[in-house]
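Session log. Operator J.P. requested a structure for one protein chain; no other inputs attached. Running the standard single-chain path with C-alpha cell output.
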Amino acid sequence: MGARALAAYAASNFGVALTESEAGRHRDTFFRTYPGLRAWHRGVPNGTVETRHRGGRRRIEVSAFTEKLNTPVQGTGADGLKRALALLWERRASCPGAFPVLLVHDEIVVECGEAQQNEVAAWVRSAMVGGMAPLIDPVPVEVEVKVGATWAG
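Structure written below.
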C-alpha cells in the first residue's frame, strides 16, 4: 500500500497516528530492508495479466496491482492446504478416530480423543508439510500445531 493508505491503516487498525510523510518513510525503510520484495513489486507488469499459482491454476484478466501480487501467494497457500487435506484422507488409517472438521484459510481443525492428540498432531503436521513443500521448494515449510479442548485453544 502507498503512504496514504498505510497512514489510514495504522490509524484504523492500531490507533497509531502517522502523517503521510512518516508513513512514506516507514514504507521506504521496509523496502530498503527487504529489497527482494521491492523488486517483486516493481516487476509486476502493467495492464491486465494472467496469474498462476505454484500448483498451476491460473486466473485470467487480473488488473488490480494487489491482486497481481496476492493471487499467486494466496492461491498457492490454498493449493497447499487442499493437498494437505488429500494427504490426511490418504493417510487416514494411521489415525482412526481423528476427523478433520473445518478448514479456515491456512488451518485444519481436527477432532480426536485426548489420548490421540500427540499422534494426531504429528499426522496433521506431516500432511501440512507434505502438501505445501513441493509447491515452494526449496523454501522450508514451518507448521505450528496447537492442541486444545476447543478450536480457540
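Operator note: The chain has a mean pLDDT of 94.
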